[in-house]
Structures are given as structure tokens and as C-alpha cells.
Amino acid sequence: MEDITVGFIGFGLIGGSIAKAIKEKHPGFTLIAYDHHTDSVNVNLSLALQDGTLSKITHSLEEDFSLCDLILLCGPVLHNINYLSRLKSIIKPASIITDVGSVKGAMHDAVKKLGLTRHFIGGHPMAGSEKTGYENASAHLLENAYYILTPTEDTTEEQLSFLKELVTCTTAIPVIMDSQKHDDMTAAISHVPHVISASLVNMVQSKDLDGTMKSLAAGGFKDITRISSSSPEMWLSICLSNRDSILKFIHTFQDLLKEFELALTANEQDAVIDFFRQAKEYRDSVPTRSNGVISRVYEVYMDLLDETGAIATVATILASNAISIKNIGIIHNREFEEGVLRIELYEEAAMNQAIALLRQYHYTIYER
């Protein structure tokens, strides 16, 4: 891929991570970002300029984005839509515009109205964090994540191949999908779960008059509501942009909750257990990293003695047997509330060898 100029509008966690990944693989690319503030310093952009990720910060779309071969819209969905009309009159004939929003239908509608279908390919990297801002960006944030691309009816194979190649540079996995199918899918597996998560938090808050619930909250509650720490403004934009799909799946969820309520009220034990059994069977069938296109994670979970140097001892045992550690850390969740050591290895043979070796040293290993 020859050296090109890439422009960013919006530069937080996702935009910054994409920029870092591109710069790492293609240091010759020119990366510029737009700052609409003229009377203050944008901390995110300043950090990216200082660390060499960005080549330039510009206050003029007309002057600098007319040079871009690729433009990434990385702000909230409604903001991204507003920038389309400004870009229409300044982009090069061969320029490609893409976005990173989790709603595609509204963007495609706006693109069609503006006559930009020859330039636009929707994008949605399915990765992120409750943390925000460029300071939390990483070149590896998108590693092994699905990156959905939603071409228009006028997208050429050459354009799509170019963007797929760029997505691959971020170590994400490109998936091609229709924009409406995308919005229904994300409503079901992302947007409505966020609404449910926020509802659970608000439910507890409304009944937690003395703060006891918050003080004792752990395990499952924290796991299922972690996503409620995301930006409220971002979720307002998402909900307004994907309203129809979200409402459709909220109604489905309400119907299922009502069915469970009726079964529990009538003490119908078979129906109650079927409710949980059906959920368990489907949840257990959801592909893990050992299935599908995402590479398997080879990991070991083990108890650890509460003493100085305990982690170093484990690392030494593995290293002395030529077992390389990919990642290591303590995790706490509902399954392991007291905390366990998680060790990630590079391959299955190393994982099996590590399990056998650590058991020889009388460590407790958890099979998952």
C-alpha cells in the first residue's frame, strides 16, 4: 500500500487506536486530524502530535482534508452525519469516507441524500472500553476484533479491497454486512444490553436508600453493569440514531420478561427452569475464541499463594521449562471473586505443558 494521507475527524479512544495501528504498520502515511476549536488546546490531539502518531493538526477542513485519500469520521453518529455535507464539496474524486459508529443506517441514509454513495463505506470496529480519550488508545485495541464494513450500492471492489487491507493493518478482522442487518444485530447484542445494564443500575440505586447495596455489590452485578460506565452523550446519539431497531428488541425483551414474570407468579417450575436452561444452552453455544475466525486464546487459571514473589515464582517455573508467557495478571469476577492468576500462552501445546508442570508443583488449576 503506497503512502497516503489519512484525515481524522474525532480523535478519542477508537480514532486514536486506529491511527496508532496505521502509523505502526505504515510510518510513511501522513495522518492529520481536524480540531474545530480555535481558542483552546485539544489535549487528545496534542498528545498524538507529541508522540508522533499525527503528522499535523488542522483547523481548516477545506485546506487540508481536500488532500486526504481516506477520511475517518470518529465522533458520535449525529456529529459524523453533520460533517458529511461539509466534506462533499472538498474531497478528491477518489477519496473514501468511512466512519466508526455503531449505527450504520442513519449514515447510509445521509450519504444517499448527499449523493456520496461512490465515496462512502460504513465501518464499525467492534472493540472498545469503558475508558475514553486518546490517553487510553492502543495500537492493539482492535486486535482480533471484528470490524464490520457496510458498502453502498456504488462501492467498487477496488475501494472495498483498499479499506479491508487497511482494517487488516489494525489486526482487526473485516466482515462485510448490509447496513440494516448491522443495525438490527448491534441493537440486539450491544445497544439493548446497554439499556438493560443502565436499567439494572438505576433499579438498584432507586432501592439503595442507605448505600448497602452499593457497598456490597460485586461479582455478577459489576460484570453485567460494567458497560454502564460509558459516555451518556455517546449513548444518546446511538439511541436516537438506531431508534427503530432498539425499540424492536426492547419490545422482544419486555415480552420475554413478562413471560418469566407470569411463570414465576404461577409457580410454574418447569417454565422457570426452561427459561434458564434455554439461555444457558444458547450462551454456551456462542463461539469462543477457539471457534470461528478469531484465534483461540490459550489460558490457564490458577490459585496463587498470598506471599511476596508468588507471581515471579510461577513465571520462573515456566521460563525454566522454555514456556513463553504472552500475558499474565490477576482477575476478579463472579466465578473467581477472591482472585486468581490468569496466564495466557502462545499455543495449545504450551498451555497443556504449563498445566501439567504447575500441577506437579501442587498449584490448583481451574479447567474452563
UniProtKB/TrEMBL annotation:
EC number(s) on record?
A: 1.3.1.12
Q: Name one GO molecular function term.
A: prephenate dehydrogenase (NAD+) activity
Keyword vocabulary terms for this entry:
Amino-acid biosynthesis, Aromatic amino acid biosynthesis, NAD, Oxidoreductase, Tyrosine biosynthesis
UniProt xrefs under Gene3D superfamilies: 6-phosphogluconate dehydrogenase C-terminal like domain, NAD(P)-binding Rossmann-like Domain
Looking up InterPro entries in the UniProt record yields: 6-PGluconate_DH-like_C_sf, ACT-like_dom_sf, NAD(P)-bd_dom_sf, PDH_C, PDH_N, Preph/Arog_dehydrog, Prephen_DH
Highest taxon listed in the record's lineage: Bacteria
Tell me, what is an example of a GO biological process annotation in this record?
tyrosine biosynthetic process
Q: Residues in domain Prephenate/arogenate dehydrogenase? A: 4-294
Instruction: Say yes or no: keyword rRNA-binding present.
Output: no
* Record field: catalytic activity: prephenate + NAD(+) = 3-(4-hydroxyphenyl)pyruvate + CO2 + NADH
Q: In which pathway does it act?
A: Amino-acid biosynthesis; L-tyrosine biosynthesis; (4-hydroxyphenyl)pyruvate from prephenate (NAD(+) route): step 1/1
Which Pfam family is one of those matched by this entry? PDH_C
What's this protein's family per the entry? Belongs to the prephenate/arogenate dehydrogenase family.
Please give the PANTHER family that the UniProt record associates with this protein. PREPHENATE DEHYDROGENASE, PREPHENATE DEHYDROGENASE [NADP(+)]
What name does the UniProt record give this protein? Prephenate dehydrogenase
